[in-house]
Specification:
This protein is α/β, with parallel strands linked by helices and 272 residues long. Helices cover 29% and strands 29% of the residues. It binds zinc ion.
Length: 272
């Protein structure tokens, strides 16, 4: 069976074997019970930022399972049609717990292609592997992808750190890069509760060397969260969790119902 991954130690081709992967030089990587593989080199495993912790991942899973972000997921899948060719290879860089990866993988399988997702968080990779049994899931940094040069047709970065240079390295010339960022008023009602003077996210159009900007797709949706658990789940999957003063967090804990606007921007780039 094909793999999108290469050996994180020597960069050589990896081969799938029962229970894991092995390269020609004998470096081997076991599949975890949940179905993901840890391709983070040993010297990077003890980083000060091991990615999202279990509580954050659980909050995100709970929230995303509510289906509130389905319009974004649908739009991402539709945009993959822009990448021509048969049997496309898709990489979800910073796949989290696999909510988007699972649907993107489905879109690839329909075209005879395949999908892989990587995330720095082991807790996230565990969930992603369960959610996406047909995709390859690895623990890895997006800044050092365990993926050969020019091997990917479609790369998706959904609310994850941007590693433009590394993304360019792994994409084929003409490959599609979908970069999802929050719109100006993303989660505005949540911020109004958390902050005395909330500010809008700035919108910027940045050119990345080696990419041609191909368009911007706005996605907007609004929904009503009922119950403190769903509201707290949303709060705990945002960066506001770390940035909010106690008073703001307390105000939010008292809310039992909340109308929320979600605003996304999907930037489309073509790898030159
Ligand atoms: Zn190797």
């Amino acid at each position: 069976m094909n793999t999108l991954f290469c050996c994180p130690v020597c960069g050589g081709r990896l081969f799938r074997e029962t229970g894991g992967y092995r390269c020609g030089k004998g470096h081997s990587f076991d599949l975890a019970r949940e179905g993901y593989v840890n391709l983070l080199p040993a010297n990077r495993r003890h980083s000060a930022f091991p990615g999202d912790d279990r509580e954050m991942v659980a909050a995100r899973t709970r929230f995303l399972d509510g289906g509130w972000y389905e319009p974004l997921r649908k739009c991402l899948c539709a945009l993959t049609d822009e990448a021509p060719g048969e049997a496309p290879a898709l990489l979800d860089a910073g796949c989290g717990e696999g909510y988007y990866t699972s649907a993107l993988c489905g879109a690839m399988l329909k075209r005879g292609g395949h999908a892989a997702g990587v995330d720095l968080s082991k807790a996230a990779a565990k969930r992603a592997a369960k959610r996406c049994p047909n995709a390859e899931i690895a623990v890895s940094s997006v800044y050092h992808l365990p993926v050969p040069d020019e091997s990917i047709d479609i790369l998706v970065d959904c609310f994850s750190p941007l590693a433009a240079e590394e993304f360019r390295r792994v994409l084929k010339p003409g490959g599609l890069f979908l970069y999802v960022v929050p719109g100006p008023k993303h989660l505005w009602e949540l911020k109004e509760v958390l902050y005395d003077a909330p500010y809008e996210n700035t919108e910027k159009q940045v050119d990345y060397p080696g990419f041609r900007f191909a368009g911007l797709e706005p996605v907007e949706t609004a929904f009503t969260l009922r119950g403190t658990e769903d509201i707290q789940a949303l709060f705990h999957m945002t960066p506001y969790t770390w940035k909010t003063a106690r008073e703001g967090a307390e105000r939010l804990r008292e809310r039992e119902e909340m109308r929320v606007t979600a605003q996304f921007r999907i930037h489309r780039f073509i790898r030159i």
